[in-house]
Amino acid sequence: MSRPDVDVAILGGGCAGLSLAARLAGGSLSFTVIEPRGGYEDDRTWSFWRMASDPFQDCVRRRWSCWTIAGPRGITRRSSDHLSYQTVSAGAFYQRAGDMIDESRNGSLRLSCAAGDVMRHGNGWRVETDAGSLDAATLIDTRPTTRQPSYGQFFLGREIRTDRAVFDPETVPLMHFRPARSMGVDFVYILPFAADHALVEVTSFAPVSPGIEVFETWLDGEIDALEAGAVEIVKTEKGALPMEVGYGGSTADGRIRMGLSGGAARPSTGYAFARIQQQADRIVADLRAGEPPRPALDSAMTRFMDRVFLQVLRRHPERGAALFQSLFHRAPADRLERFLSGSTAATDRLAVMTALPPLPFMRAALLPA
Ligand SMILES: Cc1cc2nc3c(=O)[nH]c(=O)nc-3n(C[C@H](O)[C@H](O)[C@H](O)COP(=O)(O)OP(=O)(O)OC[C@H]3O[C@@H](n4cnc5c(N)ncnc54)[C@H](O)[C@@H]3O)c2cc1C
Predict the structure, then answer these.
(1) Which residue's C-alpha comes closest to atom 13 of ligand 1?
(2) Phi-psi bin for 73: left (phi > 0), alpha (psi -120 to 50), beta?
(3) What domains can be seen in the chain, in order of their start residue?
(4) What is the C-alpha to C-alpha distance for residues 353 and 338, in angstroms, rounded to an integer?
(5) Mean pLDDT of each 10-residue bin along the chain, 369 residues long
(6) What phi, psi does 346 have (nearest 5°)?
(7) What is the pLDDT of residue 354?
(8) Distance 257 CA to ligand 1 centre (A)
């Protein structure tokens, strides 16, 4: 093959594509990000427990060291001296990644340009785009897949400002369980930015979304119940995230996938941001070492645990609230949060395993996958 146009073509300039590009910027490998959007909006917030540094630490909007779960046992409160729950604003993230690419001599971000067919070309890849074809030695595909996952996290949220001070700005209500609205496990999640300013989100872990009407009515009810006086809606966000072991991953033609379509969402929770950062670190380390990138994150044991956990949620959604609360109640400080954020340490995994009630999990483990 003649010399490719770039060392690395990154299809999709969302969270995963830009996380990878930010790490490649300023290095020796040339890269191009292909993104159909003409520009970026502050369209979401990403929250996670930070375990490692990444190029987006300046984009953190707020940090909390306390979080609560409300379920059959009442309120379970957890806090940490070492880990904080952090929120990154997408607007600041996109800006930072864009600046890093602009300042680099080795990379570019092509906006208003969609990638189409991808084929092998010599030892590398050819991508057809709106602006012609692009040849690359390595191809990283972060475009969404069309495949519906068999289970997912569905949510609708509104960032609101209220007349009255109704939120505790120091504590995140992480999972406050509610009676079933979906065929799964339903809860409210609040990110309190100030006493009169928060993101309030209604969420279902379920095989299918309960639908936008159900979510709208439920969210209206949750906001009314705050008795906060006049409410100004600053913005809304909604999503559908895969919760499925083995979702995404590599393709039949050997293309490397990353981000949600590359299995970055933790199957048992849908958390993806911290794991996308891990994937980006791994891929860059492999590329710099001249190795084929290996974006897979989970060990066989972690995949087994996630599969069994999802099996229990699927078969016994009525037990979901008690299961999650039991986890947060019994798991030693930080271990569960680290596990949920993508820790692969055996000690974290073991702490989570021993915090779960054994019987339903033994039964689920014996069922076929
Ligand atoms: C509203 C919302 C809130 C979330 N909150 C959290 C959270 O709090 N914590 C957490 O851990 N995770 C969260 N997630 C999950 C996850 O972190 C995000 O979905 C994240 O954006 C996934 O990154 P990604 O790069 O895989 O996908 P995206 O960020 O969606 O990027 C995919 C990119 O591919 C582009 N694309 C599409 N078609 C083409 C094409 N033909 N050619 C080239 N590019 C194409 C898209 O325009 C997009 O930019 C949230 C998700 C949503 C939707």
Answers:
(1) 46
(2) alpha
(3) 6-61+89-144+245-288 (3.50.50.60), 152-242 (3.30.9.10), 300-366 (no CATH)
(4) 13
(5) 88 98 96 98 93 94 97 94 94 98 96 97 94 96 89 96 98 97 97 98 97 98 98 96 80 85 87 94 94 84 84 90 90 87 80 75 60
(6) -60, -35
(7) 83
(8) 13
Q: Measured between alpha carbons, how far is 369 from 358 in angstroms, rounded to an integer?
A: 18
Question: Nearest Cα to 203, choosing from 252, 229, 240?
Answer: 240
Q: What is the 273 CA–ligand 1 centroid distance (Å)?
A: 9
Mutation test residue for ligand 1: of 46, 62, 93, 236, the one with most atoms within 8 Å of CB: 46
Q: Mind spelling out the 3-state secondary structure of 87-145?
A: EEEHHHHHHHHHHHHHHCCCEEEECCCCEEEEEEECCEEEEEECCEEEEEEEEEECCCC
Ligand 1 pocket test, pick from 15, 47, 89 with the greatest ligand atom count within 8 Å of Cβ, gives 15
Q: Is the pTM of this model over 0.90?
A: yes
As for ligand 1, residues whose beta carbon falls within 6 Å of it are: 11-17, 34-37, 44-48, 114-115, 142-144, 237, 239, 241, 259-260, 271-273, 276
Ligand 1 centre distance from Cα of residue 168 (Å)? 29
pLDDT value for 359: 61
pLDDT value at position 274?
93
